[in-house]
Specification:
Length: 362
């Protein structure tokens, strides 16, 4: 049925004023909708979200009708149409966001680690890159330390994305911090910048530690230079992370309690020494810290196993069951700060930001 709403189709209506009026009234409705988006998405939570969405949607439809009428009737030059062009972009984003929202609240809970095969081509590429950058061939060093033995990159990325979802489920404020115990060449630190803003590594081999420092410094310098130049392919990237490499023995490192996530992959060849290191890490780790120790005989006594290779030192007021239930409704995408996006999302901004916060929108 054709609408006869006088606020949309009335004769002599000032379309610009009418659109501004509806948009002003719409903003608090979208804020109310965004505030309802809090995992886990139980039946009661879904009803609250859909109710708030229905209320806002009625006004969005009216705004869309006025915008369409303006473009049909207006003879304004392009410069005078900019506010309606902006509204048109916001309306398009609204439909993208609400479509995604309805998918998210009705989808099955997401497993922490996806059950997908590794990309063998990508893994071979990283193996070749690792060999090319290594100052020596990865091997067992004579004094009982491992060479730089890399965990497959695909598995590592799945683990850090799971860690990001868990930190979000704990409402851990950003920026998040990450420590790589036995960081080798620093490739994992480079990859972990997808999820973390502050990253440190510990490396005992001098030549390897120097390579790691050079790699990370070069990556940061080149990224900063690229950001200063118009480069469309960098649009939407995450902010520059801060990195630091400690040269020394991980058994002597005093600051394991400073990190949100601690990662190690077979850092010491001697099993007894490695277990001493694992116990030291667990003892010093802060409540709520996540430990990524993806090898079969890791000792994380006092921590809960959340997934294979992923452990949690429990935080007060939060159970393992409630943490996992919440994380199951959080997506793997890292929220990009608004300042990095260089866009005006209009009345849709609170909804888009909520979806990004919970990992469901790039």
């Amino acid at each position: 049925m054709f609408s006869t709403d006088p606020e949309v189709y009335g004769a002599g209506l000032d379309l610009r004023s009418a659109a501004a009026r509806i948009e002003t009234g719409l903003r608090p409705l979208v804020i109310a909708l965004a505030q309802e988006i809090r995992p886990p998405f139980t039946p009661a939570r879904r009803r609250a979200i859909l109710g708030a969405l229905h209320i806002a949607q009625e006004q969005v439809i009216r705004l869309g009708q006025i915008t369409a009428r303006y473009f049909v009737e207006s003879q304004d030059p392009l410069a005078a149409r900019l506010d309606f062009l902006r509204r048109s972009r916001s309306l398009s984003l609204w439909y993208d966001c609400t479509t995604r929202l309805e998918q998210v609240i009705h989808q099955r809970p997401l497993p922490l680690l996806p059950d997908v095969p590794a990309d063998s081509t990508l893994e071979r590429l990283f193996e070749h890159l690792h060999l090319a950058l290594s100052p020596t061939a990865p091997a067992l060093i004579e004094d009982g330390r491992h060479g730089d033995i890399p965990l497959p990159m695909g598995r590592f990325l799945h683990l850090i994305r799971a860690a990001g979802r868990l930190l979000r489920a704990m409402d851990r404020p950003e920026p998040w911090s990450f420590l790589d115990v036995g960081c080798g060449l620093g490739l994992k630190l480079l990859a972990a910048q997808e999820m973390f803003d502050y990253l440190e590594g510990i490396e005992i081999t001098p030549a390897t530690a120097r390579r790691a420092k050079t790699l990370l410094a070069t990556a940061r310098r080149n990224r900063a230079a690229a950001e200063a130049t118009p480069t469309p392919w960098l649009t939407g990237n995450l902010p520059l992370a801060r990195t630091h490499i400690h040269f020394g023995n991980a058994l002597d490192f005093p600051d394991y309690g400073n990190f949100d996530v601690i990662y190690a992959y077979r850092p010491i060849a001697n099993t007894a020494q490695r277990h001493l290191l694992e116990h030291r890490i667990v003892a010093q780790a802060r409540p709520g810290a996540l430990l990524i120790l993806p090898y079969p005989d890791a000792e994380a006594t006092g921590c809960y196993t959340l997934a294979p290779g992923l452990y949690w030192k429990q935080a007060p007021g939060l159970t393992t069951a409630s943490l996992l239930a919440r994380a199951a409704h959080i997506g793997p995408q890292r929220a990009v700060p608004v300042a990095e996006r260089h866009s005006d999302e209009g009345f849709v901004a609170p909804l888009a930001q909520a979806l990004r916060h919970w990992g469901h929108l790039p």
